[in-house]
């Protein structure tokens, strides 16, 4: 229970007088603890419970963060807009296979795969200076998952790499920062200040060169190679670009058409890929051998049929399992 301010109590007692009843005193306390807007001051410290007088929006003030500004006069939640990083900012990450973890500037500290909002035409530095001992690099890609202006570093498994930083100029071509071997999980978005979010970010149908996102499924064009990163927690989409970064995406295929599906990369554990029907039986012997070293033999060419229901890793069928829909 909040401690009552002795000074306030003495003042109230002098106002009501010794003859005032308990009910009268209670009414005065209520009135004194209420501001003009009707907000109550339960703790007697002069502040109402809705927030400090200097922050009418209820949003915590954000003092100058290193390298980022959060001008938010509207009082909107922080989630509604990402801070614009100041030109010249160094953007550093901890390279973890599960995702890029922000180190600096302070605006992204501790955030996983944070969206970076940059100013077009300005110069920044980006990279990773700490890792988990796995092989990583960093590269900047466009919406088609192509590297922009050769902005990429070499692969290294150093836990404290010194040369994994890129200086680059922000442009509207830039869409993602990515670790090439783990592009499913180590992928963050780049936005240019003043430009509209892409259809992909707005939740609309997204067209790519090999597929379309529609609702909860990804419509894949005939003849497409469907590639995943084999992670025990889930299949992580690599290509086509419409499924990049998605876990166990639902694939919408055209009956009677041919596709190619498989996995590369991996987390060093044993995986394979199989195509199952609704009874969890392998369809037409569409399966690969179990291995921890994927190669070309971990891809299957198959014809989409109504029998197909799932693509699965047999050793990890509970977590590495995605749905197949036929159109």
TrEMBL record:
Region (Disordered): 19-98, 192-218
Domain of life (superkingdom): Archaea
Alphabetical keyword list: Copper, Metal-binding
Record domain Blue (type 1) copper: where: 115-192, 251-326
Amino acid composition bias (Acidic residues), ranges on this chain: 38-48, 57-81
GO molecular function annotation: copper ion binding; electron transfer activity
Listed name of the protein: Blue (Type 1) copper domain-containing protein
Organism: Natronorubrum tibetense GA33
Classification of source organism: Archaea, Methanobacteriati, Methanobacteriota, Stenosarchaea group, Halobacteria
């Amino acid at each position: 229970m909040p401690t009552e301010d002795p000074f306030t109590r003495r003042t109230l007692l002098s106002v009501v007088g010794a003859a005032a009843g308990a009910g009268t005193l209670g009414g005065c306390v209520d009135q004194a603890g209420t501001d003009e807007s009707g907000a109550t001051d339960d703790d007697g410290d002069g502040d109402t419970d809705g927030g400090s007088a200097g922050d009418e929006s209820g949003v915590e003030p954000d003092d100058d963060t290193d390298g980022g500004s959060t001008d938010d006069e509207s009082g909107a939640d922080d989630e509604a807009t990402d801070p614009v990083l100041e030109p010249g900012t160094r953007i550093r990450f901890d390279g973890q296979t599960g995702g890029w973890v922000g180190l600096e500037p302070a605006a992204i500290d501790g955030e996983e795969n944070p969206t970076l909002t940059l100013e077009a035409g300005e110069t920044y530095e980006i990279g990773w200076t700490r890792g988990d001992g796995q092989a990583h690099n960093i590269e900047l890609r466009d919406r088609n998952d192509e590297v922009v202006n050769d902005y990429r570093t070499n692969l290294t498994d150093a836990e404290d790499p010194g040369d994994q930083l890129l200086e680059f100029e922000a442009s509207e071509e830039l869409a993602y920062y990515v670790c090439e071997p783990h592009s499913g999980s180590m992928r963050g978005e780049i936005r240019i200040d003043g430009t509209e979010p892409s259809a992909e970010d707005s939740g609309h149908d997204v067209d790519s060169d090999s597929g379309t996102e529609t609702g909860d499924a990804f419509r894949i064009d005939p003849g497409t190679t469907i590639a995943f990163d084999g992670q025990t927690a889930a299949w992580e989409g690599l290509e086509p670009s419409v499924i990049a970064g998605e876990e166990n995406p639902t694939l919408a295929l055209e009956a009677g058409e041919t596709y190619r599906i498989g996995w590369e990369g991996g987390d060093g554990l044993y995986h394979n890929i199989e195509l199952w029907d609704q009874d969890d039986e392998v369809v037409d012997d569409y399966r690969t051998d179990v291995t921890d070293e994927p190669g070309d033999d971990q891809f299957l060419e198959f014809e989409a049929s109504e029998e197909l229901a799932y693509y699965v890793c047999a050793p990890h069928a509970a977590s590495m399992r995605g749905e197949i829909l036929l159109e």
